[in-house]
UniProtKB/TrEMBL annotation, chain A:
GO biological-process terms attached to the record: CUT catabolic process; nuclear mRNA surveillance of mRNA 3'-end processing; rRNA catabolic process; rRNA processing
Provenance organism: Holothuria leucospilota
Protein's cellular compartments: Cytoplasm; Nucleus, Nucleolus
One GO MF term attached to the UniProt entry: RNA binding
CDD domains linked to this entry: PIN_Rrp44-like (cd09862)
One Pfam family matching this protein: RNB
Protein name, UniProt field: Protein DIS3 homolog
One Gene Ontology term, aspect cellular component: nucleolus
Gene3D superfamilies referenced in this protein's UniProt entry, alphabetically: 2.40.50.690, 2.40.50.700, 5'-nuclease, Nucleic acid-binding proteins
PIN domain location: 61-178
Compositionally biased tracts (Basic and acidic residues): 947-956
Domain RNB: 469-801
Region (Disordered): 313-340, 935-962
TrEMBL record, chain B:
The species this protein was found in: Holothuria leucospilota (Black long sea cucumber)
Name of the protein described by the UniProt record: Exosome complex component RRP41
GO BP: any one term: rRNA processing
Main localisation: cytoplasm
GO CC terms, sorted: cytoplasmic exosome (RNase complex); nuclear exosome (RNase complex); nucleolus; nucleoplasm
Subcellular location: Cytoplasm; Nucleus, Nucleolus; Nucleus, Nucleoplasm
GO molecular function, one term: RNA binding
Exoribonuclease phosphorolytic domain: residues covered: 21-152, 155-220
Subunit structure: Component of the RNA exosome core complex (Exo-9), composed of EXOSC1, EXOSC2, EXOSC3, EXOSC4, EXOSC5, EXOSC6, EXOSC7, EXOSC8 and EXOSC9; within the complex interacts with EXOSC2, EXOSC7 and EXOSC9. The catalytically inactive RNA exosome core complex (Exo-9) associates with the catalytic subunit EXOSC10/RRP6. Exo-9 may associate with DIS3 to form the nucleolar exosome complex, or DIS3L to form the cytoplasmic exosome complex.
Family per record: Belongs to the RNase PH family.
Annotated keywords: Acetylation, Cytoplasm, Nucleus, RNA-binding, rRNA processing
InterPro entries xref list: ExoRNase_PH_dom1, ExoRNase_PH_dom2, ExoRNase_PH_dom2_sf, PNPase/RNase_PH_dom_sf, Ribosomal_Su5_D2-typ_SF, RNase_PH
A Pfam family annotated for this UniProt entry: RNase_PH_C
This protein's record includes keyword S-adenosyl-L-methionine: no
Amino acid sequence: MLKSKSFVKKTRKGGVIKIVREHYLRDDIWCGSEACSQCKQDSFVLEKAPSVASDKCNFPHYILPDTNVVLHQVDILEDEIIKNCILLQTVQQEVKHRSLPAYKRIQGLTTNSDKKFYVFSNEYHKETFIERLGGETANDYNDRVIRKAATWYSQHLEKNGENVPKIVLLTNDRANREKAKNEGIIAYTVHEYVQSLTDKPYLVDRLAQLAKDENDKEKVDQDIKTGKGRNVLYPEHLNLAAIQKGIKEGKYKQGTFLSSRENFREGYVSIPGEEKMYFIKGLANQNRVVSNDTVAIEVLPKSKWTCPSSLVEVDENVDPEAENSLENDEETTSSVVNSSAQPTCRVVGVIKRNWRQYCGTLEPPSMKGGSRHLFKPAEKRIPKIRIETRQAESLLGHRIIVTIDSWPRNSRYPVGHFVKNLGKIGDKDTENEVLLLEHDVPHATFSETVLSFLPKMPWVITEEDLKVRTDLRWLDICSVDPPGCTDIDDALHCRSLDNGNLEVGVHIADVSHFIQPGNALDEEASNRGTTVYLTDKRIDMVPDLLSSNLCSLRGGEERFAFSVLWEMTKNAEIIETKFMKSVIRSRAALTYEEAQLRIDDKSQSDAVTTSLRNLLALAKILKKGRLDKGALVLASPEIRFNIDSETHDPIDVQEKMIRETNSMVEEFMLLANTSVAKKILKDFTKSALLRRHPVPPPSQYEMAIKAALSRGFKLEIDNGLALSQSLDKAVMEDNPLFNTLLRMLTTRCMTQAVYFSSGTVPEEDFFHFGLASPIYTHFTSPIRRYADLMVHRMLAVAIGYSEVYPELLNSEKMQDICKNLNYRHKMAQYAGRSSVELHTHIFFRDKVTIEDGYILFIRKNALQVFIPKYGFEGTLYLKEKGKDSIFTYNEQEPSQSAGHIKFRLFDKVLVQISTETTNLQHQRLRLQLVQPEVPGFSVPRTPASSSRKEDEEPPAKKLKQK
Amino acid sequence: MSGLELLSDQGFRLDGRRPRELRKIECKMGVFQQANGSAYIEQGNTKALATVYGPHEVTGNRSKIEHDKVLINCQYSMATFSTGERRSRSTGDRKSQEMQLHLKKTFEAAILTQLYPRSQIDIYVQILQADGGNYSACVNAATLAIIDAGIPMKDFVCASTAGFVSDTPIADISYLEESQGGPELVVALLPKSDQIVEFQVNSRLHLDNFEKVLDMAIKGCKDVHAVLTRVVKDHVGQLASKMSKT
């Protein structure tokens, strides 16, 4: 089968090295077409008679896109009408080289059997391989290779008689197209081809808005050079070589750009390895970068340093043609004293774009007709995007998805194209879909392949199972969870031993028994990483049969569990720890409330209740020990909506209550996690999956320290213990919520806890700061977290229950898993928060209420107010557009004052909450000041709209431990 | 690891081979007149030259003489131009010493050493071009050279390598595949009796995958054996026809 070989010479940087590589050409690469009878292939990808209604190509054909088409028009290729496509290896490799996201998407297409995309390894084929000529550029060579493959395919298929599919080459390069036509290949631009598709006229909207031909682009460049045409708004980007040189010389720095949430003109660049972020001001300095792009920056001289303007500013421009200025971009803030100036920089070039698809809405056009429109993304950090569409009418008032194609120098906004219509704004399903898409939550229903790995029902416990597991069915085990919980993954018990000690057991659902490593079910769960909880919906990590039935430790049913048993003294000192796979039968599935009632009810003394009482006593000792070591008690608001069973709209808001039993369960889960972490680290020194919470750098606390200081308290940040003690001391008599608010601020200063593989981090960094534990992992919720499932597998090996398999020992693979888990975990949290926000909006729809609020931040033109009853933050604008503010801003204190009224941090205010109805596209909550009264600014208290009495105490906040 | 995709989804390696395919092997026996036996082998771009002298009297230090078997002396070297970077190489460095030791062990196990007590056999191998699998090329070349010299062996010694990429074992790995840091198995085999005479593993390979990779390496050795047998037969055939003419 070895045919012949050719030599590829290659030089690398520095010394010139001649590299000789073999290249075997073969004759056993098949064409993949069902219409072909010569190739000895077993299976076909391409259909025998592909039919696509097209007025240009009204014959059966396969399409063969070139690299640029694949790279820029993936959206088109992903449309269901595009089938029977030949993807050349050359094209695939070049796409991979130029854009990994695009490569991943075409990989998805090739594995999807409905799409009928065939990858042809043309470079290994004896007849399609050609050598690069001397003096030929890489681009020309690739084009020639593609043409060669197209010719071969046509000729190859023609040998099979009449009416075989023809090859249609799609390329936007004019020169290539002409050459192709000369060689007898049918060639079109993507635009021509898509326009000719009579079945799907709107597909045109999804074409990327790039220069349609190379010549267009040249024209624009020329216009820019000669100063003709539209104004050039942005400076040029440096090319990659210049950037790399600059970075090497230390002239430039490489970092990730993050746009400010509050002001679209401002942003930051975080440089890996540097604590402080660099500030960027003005659109020209940002120079066409979008949040999350990797950029090269140049730090400006100190004299030009400035600081955030504290302005909350939203881009209000709605005219897609208004692009001849960056209007008042250079609004100088030189008035700022240089002392508060931050290191400021400007973007000189883009190293890597990180564009994805964005959800949002179409702005109502300033004038009727026309196909150019502005798209406003839901994510505030993303600029508006200019798109061209002919179906604007039907898209208004809908949530749509749009992707960015480019950002030319003469356009104020990036240019993109329409991808998908999600549905009407305000419709809950649409909004949920938006939420999930924006946070990259995989939420499709489980595929057939995944479901095929589920155990067959009815499921019974067999003799063999009992042989290898410890029978713990005789123990009085019970579970304690929030009401309505169907995925119960933990249960507890406690009993007295003869020697006076106590035996405490934590029993965790044995999910790893049902999910074997490496199968489709496992891969799906691994990709999802975590179950996502939205206010009215749960996106499961594992199929329902497992999550709410077989793995859920329901009351009275026999279930498999992974148990941790401790022998403890009455003072909660651990004498012995045992791990085992077991069979249990939970006596009762209690809610926190029920458990609390049982404990408090003196008349009850059954086994479960006594066991709960003992557990509570032990938990209190454990908690005290933990707090003494410096574990932090932090706060974040948590609320619960009562949902109308018919309309699924929220009808009431409740704060989550915290009871002793909550912290009791939590305490034992922490203990189990810590014990397991120690055990698995022993057996998997290099690849144990652990969780750490890095100590935050002191600079991160600045905001909280400043806030505390404004009220005369000093935060100690030297270590966890000092911090927790100083937080305890910060109590104000007249402001009962002050402590909670300060804890909330401190929470925001914290770094995120992350999963990691033990081989990647030195042992002293295993520390979990929030829990003050030297080592920690997640073991107790395998139904809803994949990390726990991995830990279960490790522990099963560590106790000799199951055999080790290769992935479990591979530190790199484990770290990859951790990376995905951290990402999914973060996104799940954000999605959860957004869902609460969404429901808050729906809740306030058509409602006007007056509530207590507390000032969390003070900005130049606004106050950030926290409403404890609903657990959300809103912006109270102090200055209306176009009017002068009656407030004076003091940045040092910080405070805002008008007359004798002064707003300081943590001040209590009364605000009126309503939904802003002026802008249907983007509804937001509007806060207006009621008390203290500021003449000419605050709104009067209308008795009808007052929903609560003044003297009512604000309810106690939930303190959440992290 | 770098972004090189050693095995594409279509099942091709970087040089166009499928996972189980060896590189092209070309060899020639009796390339030198002066030596008792010599051979030249190309396995893809890895090229090796082997010469064999002996059996003859032990030269040099007489204390090395062994009274029940022959002394095998191996020398391994790489040409200055054998790698991408031109570098003069000393013969006595650790790497070549290790290689010499391995070669010596390999051939002590294959040659019928008890036939020539108190004598010595010299095996000199040189790598002319290195592109992965140097050891296997040396062993295969030396085998041919020993056969050329007419020294009796239990069997051919055939060597080959195997690697493991994205859950697939791959045969006869090239330098590019070697340098990606994946596991590498080196096996020298007596093909007829399936006895392994030399065996090395570089980098970590999980026990569960071991069997598959070993099978691949052994299969590689047997394929090499098929090629070598044909070459020896051709060579002997040519010699015979020459002799019959004279």
